[in-house]
Structure formats: C-alpha cells, structure tokens
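Predict structure. Chain length: 205.
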Amino acid sequence: MLTAEECEALIALYEDDSRFRSRVIMARHNFGSGEYKYFDRPLPKLVEHLRHELYPQLAHTANRWAAWLGTEAYPSQLDEFLDHCHGHGQTRPTPLLLKYQADDYNCLHQDLYGDVAFPLQVTVLLSPLHTGFEGGEFLLMEQRPRAQSRGQAVVLEQGQAVLFATHHRPVKGSRGHYRVNMRHGVSRLLSGQRYTLGIIFHDAR
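Prediction complete.
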C-alpha cells in the first residue's frame, strides 16, 4: 500500500509532537508495552488521502454487513460519516502512529471511542521486517459463541496493510447471520523497532 519512502516519511513524523493531539504510554493503562500517538488536524496529506480513498470501498462491505445484521447503513463518503460522528460528540481524529521496541507488545483490544464506530479498519506496517525488527506479529482473535476463541497471526512486510474488523463481523449460521466479536493486538517484539500506521475511520470523543 505504501512505498518504503512513504513509510520512512511517516516514521519521521513521530518525533514532531506538533503533528499529534495526544501520546499514550501503554503500560500506564495496562494496554501492553509500547506507545502511540494520535494525529491532530490537519492530518498528514498521505494519511488524509488514504482515509478518504479507502472509506468508499470499505463502505460497500460495511453496508453488506449491516444488511445481514439488520443495522443502520453507512454513508458512501467519509465526510458524511464524519459528520455523523461529530453529531454524536465524536470530533477528535483517530489515525495514529504506533511505536514498539524490544519486549513491547499490544494486548488484544477493540478501537471503540463512542457510540459510532465503522466496522472495518486498516493497519500498515512502516518498518522493514527482519532488517528493522523481529517478532511483533499482528494478532487477530475471534471470540466464537459457545466455542473456544480462534487466533491468527499476520506477518506483514514494509508497506503492506491488514484490513480487519473493528468490533465484530457477521458469520452465517443456520438461522441467518450473527455477530462474532473480534479483537486485535501485537505479539512481543524480539528486537529492533516496529512502527505502524493505524487508519480508523470513526472519530473519537
């Protein structure tokens, strides 16, 4: 999704605190170990472009899921959806950069910031695998009803992205579709530094 040069340019932004609205140290909140920063407005042009270009494509899937689950449909364009977020008091941007060093990890979680949430989000690996870090696989956990949870580790190369469910995904059963809760995280980093870009489409309170 991104070139090596674009990845390095985003990593370089991490030390410029003027580009971010907040910094979170994961250990302080029992989120894991590592840190991340939420971008402030205006978002970097590349991040703004990705957010606006990806949303309409993902809205098709989101609305198919909504039809299966009998929930409200999503607007076809990001600006309309953000207006909906702002009407519910969710006005703060949520795209973020995450930074992990050796022994850091991210506990399984969901990125929910209010009553409104878009059902899909994207993470892009910015650091080069092997030459930049070892370990730190992206993790997905599916909490199946009346069954043990099922996990999956996703290994990304620099510039590659993983698209995943924010909260839950529909699964077809004998009586129609039902919700299966999803959580995501990052396994322990063995060495080096790992930076990622998170693109979340709903804004936060």
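Summary: The two ends are 29 Å apart (CA to CA).
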